[in-house]
Write a structure and sequence with these properties.
With 256 residues, the chain is of the alpha/beta class. Helices cover 32% and strands 20% of the residues. Strands 1-7-8-6-5-2-3-4 form an 8-stranded mixed β-sheet, with helices on both faces.
Length: 256
């Protein structure tokens, strides 16, 4: 039985039993994830973020394993790109996609970390890609598409805005059957839709879920590890009182 098929069957069984489920927050962390976090190549300022970002637990939740093909979409500093490089190992591959719209409209510092990976010969299993969102493509089928704190940006003017429905369909087509689309983003007030994407950099999770499911994805599970009930959802995510500790939703969608 292929890995993709076995993942699909497991997902179907889970959905038949109880629908989309909430992840166990006490999940054991695989050794390859712990080793990836301990990699001395990682910049100190990124290692300092590991606790707040709950990196070990969210990567474990995404079910990424050795040998897989992963896309880190809008990787910014390359924080997760570096970790994925170690987790998938030399038999796997990581693509880090920087949209040309982001490059044209954002300060270079926002993507400097990813550019540094591109110049580092020790990251042989990482390919940095640059292309327009309207021309999204990846050289091979993927096991995982990952985007962290970026989905809301797709609706903002500096990215076009993107044709989000078309892009979600492209994500669906880029994954192997049974592949995972893992989305983390800042939570906006209930029923706010897209109101706060450009001002507070937040999105209503219901709106995000509906958009992604419309492309054919199935919401399999949700992790609570980044949720913060003390976030009132009315401040920009850059406000010093909440920065780094916003209420964030973590959705695991699967391509059937």
């Amino acid at each position: 039985m292929t890995k993709g098929l076995s993942k699909s069957i497991a997902a179907l069984v889970g959905m038949l039993i109880c629908g989309a489920t909430s992840a166990d927050t006490a999940t054991d962390i695989p050794k390859n994830v712990l080793d990836a976090l301990a990699d001395p190549r990682r910049p100190a300022e990124q290692r300092d973020l590991d606790t707040a970002r709950h990196a070990a637990r969210v990567i474990t939740f995404a079910q990424v394993t050795s040998g897989e093909r992963v896309l880190d979409f809008m990787p910014g500093s390359g924080y997760f790109t570096r970790i994925f490089s170690d987790v998938v190992g030399p038999k796997g591959h990581v693509y880090a996609l920087l949209p040309s719209e982001q490059i044209a409209n954002c300060p270079p510092r926002e993507i400097a970390g990813t550019r540094s990976i591109e110049r580092d010969p020790s990251y042989q299993n990482v390919t940095v890609l640059t292309r327009s969102l309207s021309k999204f493509s990846i050289p091979q089928k993927l096991d995982l598409i990952w985007t962290s704190q970026n989905y809301h940006d797709l609706h903002d003017s500096f990215l076009g805005p993107a044709d989000v429905a078309a892009l979600n369909r492209a994500f669906f087509g880029a994954l192997k059957p049974g592949g995972v689309f893992l989305v983390i983003d800042h939570v906006a007030e209930p029923n706010s839709g897209l109101r706060d994407t450009d001002t507070l950099h937040r999105i209503d999770p219901v709106r995000m879920k509906n958009e992604i499911e419309a492309a054919g994805f199935v919401l399999e599970s949700e992790s609570d590890v980044l949720r913060n009930p003390n976030d009132g959802h009315h401040l920009t995510v850059f406000d010093p009182s909440i920065r780094g500790n916003t209420d964030q939703v973590t959705y695991l969608f699967r391509r059937p």
